[in-house]
Specification:
By secondary structure, this protein is an all-alpha fold. 54% of the residues lie in helices and 3% in strands. Strand 1 and strand 2 form a beta hairpin.
């Protein structure tokens, strides 16, 4: 059974969306600018932005920079952002250790024992992501004192 864990694409995408919302009307937001802010390679940023555009979450004109949110933040769920940027399926939070002993009764069965509760927990996370909006993330961002931002 392959081990999957949630990758960082969601946090990078949310970083980009907050940046677009906060600064997109003041400056032309480019992948270079976003890469400086996120600490990610501009190619990764362009791929994420392309996925967000394809999903209808952002719009961007031809040429460098100028992306904008395509809808209000309250209409953009974390689930939609995750689905846009991670095509590997539902988030898998829990991985299995890869080499339990086949000679041990616990080792032989641990993956089967944990598979159902892990799947239930991951489904709960996915359902919750559908109900959390980008607006709630922006609200949390705005609760940080301005001098700390």
């Amino acid at each position: 059974m392959p081990v999957r864990t949630v990758n960082s694409k969601l946090s990078i995408a949310m970083h980009c969306l907050i940046f677009l919302y906060e600064y997109g009307n003041q400056t032309k937001v480019t992948s270079t600018l976003l890469s400086l802010s996120t600490g990610c390679n501009p190619v990764i940023i362009r791929n994420i932005m392309s996925a967000l555009k394809k999903a209808g979450i952002i719009t961007s004109p031809k040429g460098p920079g100028g992306a904008k949110l395509a809808m209000p933040p309250e209409d953009i769920s974390l689930g939609a952002v995750y689905s846009a940027v991670d095509h590997s399926g539902a988030p898998a939070i829990f991985g299995f250790h890869t080499a339990p002993s086949a000679h041990c009764p616990v080792g032989r069965n641990i993956h089967a024992v944990l598979e159902i509760p892990y799947h239930e927990l991951e489904n709960a996370v996915q359902e919750r992501m559908k109900t959390l909006s980008s607006q709630s993330v922006l609200d949390d961002y705005h609760r940080i004192p301005e001098e700390a931002r």
